[in-house]
Specification:
Its main location: mitochondrion. Keywords: Membrane, Mitochondrion, Mitochondrion outer membrane, Protein transport, Transmembrane, Transmembrane helix, Transport. There is one protein chain. This protein is mainly alpha-helical and 102 residues long. It has two domains: 62 residues, Serine Threonine Protein Phosphatase 5, Tetratricopeptide repeat; 31 residues. The protein is built from four helices and no strands. Helix 1 packs antiparallel against helix 2. The longest helix is centred in the last third of the chain and has 31 residues. The chain is rod-shaped and about 85 Å long.
């Protein structure tokens, strides 16, 4: 009975953590710490599902809608980084050092 109570306590704790993280996501969807806690809670909750397909189904049902905004900002971040690298390379090429004195 102790093992089942321990599992039940873990389930309740992780479900509570998931709900808190879901509410925090509504306020600030770009909080990386919150997203990490939320993913950890979902992984822990998936352990209570019966088969691996049920675990995957649970994670797919909860996670994809939240990930879209984060992916959009990742893409824009890479575009900005590429622009900065291109500008710095162009600037380095335009400022050629003077030749050494003879």
């Amino acid at each position: 009975m102790d093992a089942s109570m321990n599992d039940f306590d873990r389930f309740i704790l992780n479900e509570h953590e998931r709900k808190l993280c879901d509410a925090a996501y509504a306020i600030n969807p770009l909080d990386a710490d919150n997203l990490a806690k939320w993913g950890g809670a979902l992984l822990e909750l998936s352990q209570f599902q019966g088969s691996p397909s049920e675990m995957t189904q649970m994670l797919k049902g909860k996670f994809p809608r939240k990930r879209k905004a984060v992916i959009k900002y990742d893409i824009f971040g890479w575009i900005i980084l590429a622009g900065i690298v291109a500008a710095s390379v162009g600037m380095a090429k335009s400022h050629v050092p003077s030749p050494p004195p003879r």
